[in-house]
Amino acid sequence: MARFPLGKRLRVLDVGMGRGAQALRLARGGHEVTGVEQDADALAAVRAVVAAEPEGIRSRMRVVEGDARDTGVHFLPGSFDVVLCHGGLMHVDEPDALLAGLGRVLAPGGLLSLVVRNADALAMRPGLRADWAGALAAFGSDTYRDESGAEVRAHRLDAVGQSLAGIAAPLVAWYGVRVFSEATDIPAAGPDLEALLSAETRAGRTDPYRRVATMLHLCGGRD
Predict the structure, then answer these.
(1) In which order are the strands placed within the sheet that holds 215-221?
(2) Is 22 inside any structural domain?
(3) Count of C-beta atoms within a 10 Å radius of residue 8
(4) pLDDT category, 94, cuts 50, 70, 90?
(5) Cα 13 from Cα 34, distance rounded (Å)
(6) Of 8, 42, 39, whose CA–CA distance to 24 is shortest?
(7) pTM beyond cutoff 0.85
(8) What InterPro entries is this protein classified in (predicted)?
(9) Which of 43, 46, 101, 138 has its CA 20 to 30 A from that of 16?
(10) What CATH number is given to the structural domain containing 149?
(11) Closest-CA residue to 177 (of 92, 118, 127, 112)
(12) Which residue range is the domain that position 138 belongs to?
């Protein structure tokens, strides 16, 4: 999305930054990035990676230990041009409260970027893997088991859109993530990977394919 002028240095908040791959990529691109994470192993990993970067990049990266729901404790209202929460809603009992906190720190004209598991397509993943019992159980469900076996939440496009409107950052764009790749091994590199990424990008922007994606990428914009 061309929401910001080309070359503008943005203030970015990455909530639930994990091991920092996304945040670091943005800092290397010239943006001022703050990451929030509470997992001790992830924090240690991201701090080690940041420490190995050149000073110019290190100076643009700030790592905060904290819960995704506590953004109001750490940051003033309107502090960030872009707020990312990619996967965080899956792990909280009250997603609306988390979204309200993210909206509070989003500046006028800013963008809130969310990645959630697609509740309307929970049967697709087990079905593509020939897990018929799992597919049947997934119809109508709002929860699933993650890679660790923990039960976590999935979300529906319309419901998240309503929540974004409620925090004055209405939905301005959305995309499907992992439409085809759930049913195939992902190549490590080379032409096959490039072809897969091209197909995923096209499908993730095109109906009806994006509606059955494993995950949804939703963007809320504040005027």
Answers:
(1) 61-65, 32-37, 11-15, 80-86, 106-117, 215-221, 171-177
(2) no
(3) 10
(4) confident
(5) 5
(6) 42
(7) yes
(8) Methyltransf_11, SAM-dependent_MTases_sf
(9) 138
(10) 3.40.50.150
(11) 118
(12) 67-221
